[in-house]
Amino acid sequence: MKDLRRYLALKYIQYLVLSSSNAVSTLLGLLGSAYTMILLQSAKVSSKSTAVLISSLAQADILVFLSLVCDVALGSFGVSPAASALARILLTANAHVSCVLLSCVAFEAYLITFLPSQSRPLRTVRNARLISRAVWTLVAAECALFLVDEHLGAGGASAASRGPVGLLFQLCSAAAALLRSLSYILGILLRIINVYIYYKIFFSMSPR
Q1: Quick check: 16 and 190 in contact, CB under 8 A?
Q2: Number of domains into which the chain is organized
Q3: What is the pTM of this model?
Q4: 20 to 30 Å CA-CA from 2: which of 46, 122, 172, 179?
């Protein structure tokens, strides 16, 4: 449907084109996700793998709403380092889930365009749900590690410089730093891959 294509275009601009989020793109993304979740409940939208991925993409913006709630709580009841860290990590989770799911949609579009019959056994609702759950699980594990690192950092590195707690602090800090570096590199790769996929699709559909 045209509305779903417009929603995907909005999300690609928000997460894979803009260098950073802003109030306008965030508000439009939230409104688009709310409308899409309502639209996907309609009987006019068939239950296909792409619809499952788009539904999961729209649900990811719930994390943005929760982050805004945290920010309001910070302003109303005073700044809490734990709440501030949680708000940032919720936004990180939303961005990572959205980027990966958008790339999954792009890859599925590539399969539909170039390998329609060969890829049909793979493009099932069940597989789409498994992919969505796997993405959410991996990002949740990533964000849990970030939360632990933030908590240990707030406690002070000097207080945990010796013994098992000190070793845990060092391991979590190293793992969190590695994940942040990998997520940055992965974000660049996803942008390149998405541009390549849609470049191929566009020119394959252009009149020769």
Answers
A1: yes
A2: 1
A3: 0.88
A4: 122
